[in-house]
């Protein structure tokens, strides 16, 4: 009886589904912190081959969905961490969050597989249709239902020279190229003496790597007297951050790091997201304490504020005497983290945002805006935490001099989430050609140049400060000028070709 059941599981069509799930796990190992992109590329090629062998839309969809489920189950395993901060209250939701997240996001991949099985003629046609459809599905994943473009296939290149291609194409174009390279062994003849596709895939990876290395190595004119920015990392673990006896500890720690002498001294000091333990309207003498510690140097600090019944997750710029010089309210909020869709109903059952302080959570700010830090530092685009995930959120203003992110990555745990968040910041720097500075509560705080290189950083789980020169801005990249429109048009044309071809059958 057991032997018969074992045979049924691994007999067609079941075994391709299980194999696809395993290949999805291999693909996830290309994400930070593992960054095993050769393994990920081979796993992706295997998944495309399995989808191409699907003889019906349903079978191709099932295989693609299984691959996506395996990929997201491992790559997004950090999603359980926020539920473990208050494990007695929220811990029961952790496994459901991971299962639902992985299964739900894999539906995008399943839809791409279904399209490939419906539109493609033969294995090669299905492989190419899947590449185009999956690229389109990943682009849609960045926009649909507020978007969640985390752990894209193209992200496996972050940290490798091939990442520089994002300056031309953005992360969705990088994903399209990644899928095309992985599909070459399926699209072109393979076999003894005929491994053309595999050879071209290796050549493409090597060519992109050489081009990326040359772009990274190109010299940039340094400023003779660059402005200095100090990033504060208090290392306030989330389960301790708001505890009454620990609030003064973290507060004094941040003031002490702010007051440390520097040679040269900082022109700006940055505290991470929600670093200030009081609300802006209840500041009392708090803002003056920050200003005194900074010696009058401006301080950009994450703080909460309210305006009537609305609460905001904000970044305040504090000048001499505690004067408020600038303010930015986060506008791209985390669903079920910072706000609850349908909060009026769900709040009755005790369900509220994990990172919010009341049932209704935060309200979104009006949108992207620049903060002016004066002649030396120029204008910066502020981002709060999750907003760095979305390249479209960097396109709503005039071009800034640099990008500033404040974040509390303590919510992401200590294994994978903070490193993936840092990786996405590096990719935003490449896409825009702008230096990217991030102050993170528990790490990783970093100074990143316009080619995505980490020039200075504080490791995860360490309290401290770094004072570093602001890197120069590079010329505006092609992607910064065009955004996702060229990739979207190319994908629409490719998918339309398959639809038209299918209609002529």
TrEMBL record:
<dbReference type="InterPro" id="IPR004563">
    <property type="entry name" value="Apolipo_AcylTrfase"/>
</dbReference>
<keyword id="KW-1003">Cell membrane</keyword>
<protein>
    <recommendedName>
        <fullName>Apolipoprotein N-acyltransferase</fullName>
        <ecNumber>2.3.1.269</ecNumber>
    </recommendedName>
</protein>
<keyword id="KW-0812">Transmembrane</keyword>
<keyword id="KW-1133">Transmembrane helix</keyword>
<feature type="transmembrane region" description="Helical">
    <location>
        <begin position="92"/>
        <end position="115"/>
    </location>
</feature>
<keyword id="KW-0012">Acyltransferase</keyword>
<dbReference type="InterPro" id="IPR036526">
    <property type="entry name" value="C-N_Hydrolase_sf"/>
</dbReference>
<feature type="domain" description="CN hydrolase">
    <location>
        <begin position="232"/>
        <end position="472"/>
    </location>
</feature>
<feature type="transmembrane region" description="Helical">
    <location>
        <begin position="34"/>
        <end position="51"/>
    </location>
</feature>
<dbReference type="InterPro" id="IPR045378">
    <property type="entry name" value="LNT_N"/>
</dbReference>
<feature type="transmembrane region" description="Helical">
    <location>
        <begin position="127"/>
        <end position="145"/>
    </location>
</feature>
<dbReference type="Pfam" id="PF00795">
    <property type="entry name" value="CN_hydrolase"/>
</dbReference>
<keyword id="KW-0808">Transferase</keyword>
<feature type="transmembrane region" description="Helical">
    <location>
        <begin position="63"/>
        <end position="80"/>
    </location>
</feature>
<comment type="pathway">
    <text>Protein modification; lipoprotein biosynthesis (N-acyl transfer).</text>
</comment>
<feature type="transmembrane region" description="Helical">
    <location>
        <begin position="165"/>
        <end position="188"/>
    </location>
</feature>
<feature type="transmembrane region" description="Helical">
    <location>
        <begin position="9"/>
        <end position="28"/>
    </location>
</feature>
<comment type="similarity">
    <text>Belongs to the CN hydrolase family. Apolipoprotein N-acyltransferase subfamily.</text>
</comment>
<dbReference type="InterPro" id="IPR003010">
    <property type="entry name" value="C-N_Hydrolase"/>
</dbReference>
<dbReference type="Pfam" id="PF20154">
    <property type="entry name" value="LNT_N"/>
</dbReference>
<keyword id="KW-0472">Membrane</keyword>
<comment type="function">
    <text>Catalyzes the phospholipid dependent N-acylation of the N-terminal cysteine of apolipoprotein, the last step in lipoprotein maturation.</text>
</comment>
<feature type="transmembrane region" description="Helical">
    <location>
        <begin position="195"/>
        <end position="214"/>
    </location>
</feature>
């Amino acid at each position: 009886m057991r032997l018969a059941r074992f045979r049924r599981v691994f007999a067609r069509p079941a075994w391709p589904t299980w194999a696809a799930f395993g290949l999805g796990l291999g693909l996830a190992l290309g994400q930070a912190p593992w960054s095993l992109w050769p393994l990920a590329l081979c796993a992706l090629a295997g998944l495309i081959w399995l989808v191409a062998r699907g003889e019906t839309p349903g079978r191709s969809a099932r295989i693609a969905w299984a691959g996506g489920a395996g990929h997201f189950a491992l790559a997004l395993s950090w999603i359980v961490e926020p539920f473990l901060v208050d494990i007695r209250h929220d811990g029961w939701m952790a496994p459901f969050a991971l299962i639902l997240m992985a299964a739900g996001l894999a539906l995008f991949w399943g839809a791409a597989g279904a399209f490939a099985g419906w539109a493609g003629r033969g294995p090669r046609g299905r492989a190419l249709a899947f590449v185009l459809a999956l690229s389109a599905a990943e682009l849609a994943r960045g926009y649909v239902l507020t978007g969640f473009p985390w752990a894209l296939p193209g992200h496996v290149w972050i940290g490798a020279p091939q990442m520089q291609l994002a300056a031309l194409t953005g992360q969705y174009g990088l994903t399209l190229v990644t899928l095309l390279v992985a599909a070459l062994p399926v699209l072109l003849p393979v076999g003894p003496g005929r491994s053309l596709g595999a050879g071209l895939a290796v050549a493409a990876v090597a060519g992109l790597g050489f081009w990326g290395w040359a772009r990274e190595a190109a010299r940039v004119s340094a400023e003779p007297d660059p402005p200095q920015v100090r990033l504060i990392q208090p290392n306030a673990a989330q389960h301790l951050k708001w505890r009454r006896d620990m609030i003064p500890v973290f507060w004094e720690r941040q003031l002490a790091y702010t007051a440390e002498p520097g040679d040269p001294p900082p022109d700006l000091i940055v505290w991470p997201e929600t670093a200030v333990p009081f609300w802006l309207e209840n500041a009392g003498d708090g803002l003056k304490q920050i200003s005194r510690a900074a010696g009058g140097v401006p301080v950009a600090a994450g703080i909460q504020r309210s305006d009537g019944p609305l609460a905001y997750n904000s970044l305040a710029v504090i000048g001499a005497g505690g004067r408020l010089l600038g303010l930015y309210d986060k506008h791209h909020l985390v669903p079920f983290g910072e706000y609850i869709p349908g909060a009026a109903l769900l709040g009755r059952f005790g369900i509220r945002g994990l990172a919010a302080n009341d049932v209704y959570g935060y309200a979104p700010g009006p949108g992207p805006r620049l903060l002016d830090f004066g002649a030396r530092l120029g204008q910066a685009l502020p981002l709060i935490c999750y907003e760095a995930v979305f390249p479209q959120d960097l396109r709503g203003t005039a071009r800034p001099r640099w990008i500033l992110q404040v974040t509390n990555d303590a919510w992401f745990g200590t294994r994978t989430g903070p490193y993936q968040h840092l990786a996405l910041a590096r990719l935003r720097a490449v896409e825009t050609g702008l230096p990217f500075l991030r102050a993170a509560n528990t790490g990783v705080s970093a100074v990143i140049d316009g080619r995505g290189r980490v020039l200075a950083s504080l490791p995860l789980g360490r309290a401290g400060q770094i004072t570093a020169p602001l890197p120069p801005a590079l010329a505006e990249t092609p992607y910064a000028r065009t955004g996702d429109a060229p990739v979207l048009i190319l994908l629409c044309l490719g998918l339309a070709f398959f639809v038209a071809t299918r209609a002529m059958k």
